[in-house]
Hints:
Blueprint: E1 7-16, E2 22-27, E3 42-43, E4 46-48, H1 55-67, E5 72-77, E6 82-85, E7 101-111, E8 131-137, H2 142-145, H3 151-161
Parallel strand pairs: 1-7
Antiparallel strand pairs: 1-4, 2-3, 2-8, 5-7, 6-7
Amino acid sequence: MTAADPYRPNVGIALFDRRGRVFIARRMGDDGPEIIFPGHEWQMPQGGVEPGEDLEPAARRELAEETGIRSVALLGRMAEAVTYDWPPCHGPPHRLARWRGQRQVWFAYRFTGSEAEIDLAASAGTEPIEFDAWRWEALASLPDLVVPYKRPLYAAVVEAFAAFAMPAE
């Protein structure tokens, strides 16, 4: 990885329940440059944008692939993209090695369905399952739950979407 390497186009999803809490899921393990640290396995759904794919449909696709969730209403999006660099990776070359990190556009949605819709194995058969548990959490708590290299990004998401972290009317 060098400073000249590009960032991978990516979307992030902050999914709020009616009480204003946000959906987080626990990563099952490291994924090459996307490493986790004990006690910091939690994150919001995120994923790559396919060439030519529009960002908001990509966010809906990634949310459905990683969680099974399709019943959502768009609340907003961050005005500016945010980036993060991969931490040093000492393992074998990985499918994401051509990028230095990710450039993310974040979307906020309100969950409008039933929790029975949530299925972390929704991608089974097409993509590796990334998460083994989920919960609703206070938005402001998220920077303390994620891996250290994503904390500044999560702090920006908390600031951008704080207005959505209140009970829906």
